[in-house]
Amino acid sequence: MKYATTFGSSSAARDSALYAEGMELGRALCEAGYIVKCGGYGGVMEAVSQGANEAGGEVIGIGLKDFEAVRPVNAYLSKKIVAKSLYERLMLLIEGSDLFVAQWGSVGTLNEIFMVLALKYGGIKPNARIVLLGEKYEKMKNSELFDENFSQNVEIYKSVEELKKRL
Length: 167
Known about the structure:
By secondary structure, the protein is an alpha/beta fold. It has helices spanning 17-31, 44-54, 86-94, 107-121, 135-140, 148-153, 160-164, and strands at residues 2-7, 34-38, 59-64, 79-83, 97-102, 129-133, 154-157.
């Protein structure tokens, strides 16, 4: 079994381009044979889950005890695990996965991306494949924000269609 973990905005509206991209991503990952893991709530997490679910795939949501009462229920999960701490949640999202795909997000998404990068840089997860997906990341690709080391360890794709060619 191979696992892909996805990260992204919890506030993406169902009628947004980001949500549509998430659905497409979920479908593509399942069609490529991945079991998908995500944060387990709304926004991009729900979109990826919906796409994977509609493609007949399996989606594992990793929630957080403190979020359970305040975050929306994700009806597209095959299974949900509720972590006791943010650190435990992040470890469960990372554990067992070798592919990590981040759509646009906020502080939580950045935290998740940088944790995987730190594990890769530190040799703890040397085979981690880290993908930033979407036009906003693509526009930043050649900026001074990313140093050479970052650029050598992270793949950036403008669209799911581009990513699909490399799954």
